[in-house]
């Protein structure tokens, strides 16, 4: 008998059970790794599929930034389109096709995403993105612009306007980040990026189903989530460095999101602003749109029924029609 009242046979059985349990866990990890392990896709391979004749690359702070500059070339105040977390410049395709006939439209892959890839300094703070956008616009010769952004891109838009108000003539905020809020539903990829052990495995083990569920999470109409759309999000997530950058950016947001809150300065933005929101956005709920609407002194709020977190992608035709009217004013 041991001092705990267990005999040696009982103790041996407990240790044997623990050993089998540990071996089972290791076996499951090995099997999962074998099935879902995904190597990075070479950048040149991704360029062949996701770059086109309009694609350009510009060197900024050690990054080869992918962007497209389309439409009316002599337009001195172009529209700058900034995508959200996990997305790429392709998310604006519908808007660009509708706007480039009358405007100059510039969109880019932000650091950490698309063909641009990670920031060598691993900085994904709002301060970094504002500084980066200023460097990007200076590099391509844009002094003043109409800036539009979705989610993270929306947050970058108004933060940039706070820092450089003389450079932004109008803003378009599409389900933008801006105020501390509680999400009603979070994409599974966002959740996994916050789990201490899992997030490290996520750099190498990336099931396509996780990407699919994450995209479906931000759409109100799941039938619009096509195989081609999932492939694009999935392929670009496998660009070298993007998975680690995604985790780094989510960690930045979790660790410094509250302390880096800059929303008190939104009230000081006087440029005309269009706020577009999906009423079925459960990641950044509609109450955030109402806060923007209350704080911005010169804004218009348009809410789209049965639309999710990325209405410019989910229903480009209806949302861009509102944008066109806003731009005419």
From TrEMBL:
GO terms for molecular function: hydrolase activity. It holds the Pfam family Abhydrolase_1. SUPFAM superfamilies: alpha/beta-Hydrolases (SSF53474). The chain crosses the membrane at residues 20-37. Keywords: Hydrolase, Membrane, Transmembrane, Transmembrane helix. InterPro entries: AB_hydrolase_1 (IPR000073), AB_hydrolase_fold (IPR029058). It comes from the Bacteria. Residues 78-315 form the AB hydrolase-1 domain. PANTHER family: ALPHA/BETA-HYDROLASES SUPERFAMILY PROTEIN, LIPASE-RELATED. This is Alpha/beta hydrolase fold containing protein. It comes from Emticicia oligotrophica (strain DSM 17448 / CIP 109782 / MTCC 6937 / GPTSA100-15).
